[in-house]
Each structure stands twice: as structure tokens, then as C-alpha cells.
Amino acid sequence: MLNSHLSVTGILASSLFLCGAAALPLSAQDTATAAQQEITFTSWTGPYMRSQMLGFVRPYEEANDVRVHVEHYNGGISEIRDQVESANVVWDVVDLTQADSLRACEEGLLEDLSGITLPAGKDGTPFQEDFVPGALSDCGVGVIEWATAFAYAETAFSDNPPQSIGDFFDTETYPGARAIRNDPTVIMEWALMADGVVREDVYPTLETAEGVAQALGVMDAIKPGLQVWSTGREPVRLLNAGDVVMSSIWATTGAAAAEEEGASFVIVFDGRVLELDLFGIPKGSLNKEAALEFIRFASSSESLANMVGYLPNGPTRKSSMALLSDETLAKIPNSPAYADNLSIVSDADWWSQNHGRLEEVFQQWLTTNDQQGPAGTTR
Q1: Whose C-alpha in 5, 119, 229, 253 is 20 to 30 A from the C-alpha of 223?
Q2: Residues contacting residue 88 through CB under 8 Å, at least 6 positions apart
């Protein structure tokens, strides 16, 4: 009996030990291995996110057996800063404007990607030579070139439609309410260009108090009835509803919306402001290696071409251009078809240093306008 009792006791003890072991947390190595099976990708919502989901997120999941959690945000770097400063980084890859990417990198909020190795272009071009200028930085890998243009309600000016950026501010020839994005970028460049400042002098002019006053003076013409938009689809709704006769608009979102049933606006590419978006990895990501693999896949010639096929942004790889259809090539904002239209490349480095100063000035200018739109930004 004693031996039987000991035997049963031993079995019970072993069972309890095994149950306890099963309840213990995973080791650091096991946790890291499990974490590498999923990453969180954060980007802008709407048609742009859809193009990314279909262009490379779902294909990446299928090819690599990795779960990609997708979240959206409203731009800026405050959420990344909060995560990094609290040591609670939950995003692994973030889609950033070039100016935000530079600001976040300077603040030490992003992982160093200067030594990243990317696949060569589809045509064999080394990746260092394949990306457009500015698309490879210390903390970012570029994915798209996009633009802000302006659009007008087709029924408002059917006889004498606006054609230049100067017309956007000409409320005598083209009367009616305007809409602009709730941000100083683009509108301040436009104001100076409309006032005769050449592209090369726009940012040096905005360096001065006199230049800022000049831009605001031009902008005063559109203040009566001004609407301020936040989401990429909002100017589409304002134009189609007849609430405004002209609005700044993200060119690719507008181009897609202009083909929808019931659309009644026309996009003007003169004066468009070209910008880049780049992928970055928040500092302290628990899944850095998996995030790097995702970026390598998403920034390949084929992935960028696939994405652009769903929404006509410009790919940042030159080799991707050869993979686009003639129809898509004709729509992208950096298309050769628009080479004759006056445009300006946004100086992301300049904005990364000056956005805070001009944001304060811009918001002060808006305070006398009683018809502001909602805050926030999604693309």
C-alpha cells in the first residue's frame, strides 16, 4: 500500500509539475519567434489603403505566411513619439510623408535604415539607382510620389473654366466659395506662385516675415465662405454637392472620384505640388526584422506597380514605370503627360524645419473664418 501510495503521489506530483510548466510564460526566445509571425502596418485610410492592401499587403501575407495587422492614422508623428517615449511601440511599419519622416528621424523616433539592402529593380537596376531622388533616406524607403492639385465644379465655369493656379485665388473672375486642406503646406506655396514668385524662390520667400505676409495676403481673397477639409474624400463631396466651386484635392483620390457616377468636377494640374511617402520603422519595434522583410517586399518593382494599378500614384522606382499600363501612366501625377504644367516639388526638408512655425501662423489666419471644416487627415 505504501508503494502504491507513493506511486500515485509521484504521478500526481509529476502531473502538477507539467501543468505548472505549461502555464509558465513563453521564454524570451519563444516570444520573439511568435512575434515574428505577425506585424502591424499603419497607413492612411480610404482608397490609398485599399491600393496597398491589394497591391502588396495581401500578396505578402500569402507569400510569407505572416499576418499583417493593418491600422490607420491621421498623419503626423505625435502617435509615434508617444509610443517610443513610453516604450510601448505597437506599430512596426508606418507610411509617412517625407517631411514627417525627416522630422521623426531627426527626433530619433525611427530605426536607422541607411544600411538596408533592397531587391534590384525588375530590369536589373541596382536599387540605389532605381529609386527617385529623396526616396531613400536614413530612416525611410519611399513608396509613392503623389500630388495636391485643385479642382473646380464643372457646372460653375463651363464657359470659361479655370486653368492656372492663379485662377484659384481670382475670386472676381471665378466667384464662389473655396475649400483647402487644414494645413499650411501647399496653400502657402500656391499663394506665392499665384503672386508671381518663381518656384525656385518660394521657400526662401517663406523664410521671411514679409514673404509669409505676402502669402497670407493672397490667401485673404479666398477667405469669404472658405471651407477647410480634412479627409481625402471631403473635397469630392463638397464639389459634387455644390458647396464650393473650387477646392484643393489629392490628385489621385480626385482622379479616381472624378470617374464615379455623379461626379461633376474637373482637376487642374497646373501648380500641383509633388510629394513623397516613405515607410519607416518606429524605434523599438519588437518585430524589426519582420518589418524589414515587409518593406523589402512592398518596395519591389512589382509591388509598387501593383499598388499604383489600384490608385494612380507615382511609384518611387523607375523600373516600376515600365510595368504600368498606358492608361495608368497617363493618370499618375508625375506623368510625362503633365510635364508642361507648372508644378513644384515640395521641399520636405524645409517643411520638416518650418512646419511648426507656419502651422501656428496658418491657424491664426483661420481664426477669423467661421466656416472651418473638421480637423484630422486621412488619405
Answers
A1: 253
A2: none
Q: CB–CB of 308/320 below 8 Å?
A: yes
Alpha carbon distance 222, 230 (integer Å): 18
Separation CA 229–CA 247 (nearest Å): 9
> Quick check: helix, strand or coil at residue 368?
coil
Q: How far apart are CA 6 and CA 4, in angstroms?
A: 5
Burial (CB count within 10 angstroms: exposed 0-12, middle 13-18, buried 19+), residue 310? middle
CA distance 5 to 133: 79
- Spatial contact of 75 and 103, defined as CB atoms under 8 Å apart: no
In a 13 Å sphere around the CA of 21, the CA atoms on its Cβ side amount to 6
C-alpha cell at 315: 511609384
Q: How far apart are CA 312 and CA 107, in angstroms?
A: 32
**Nearest CA-CA partner of 181 in 238, 143, 265, 102:** 238
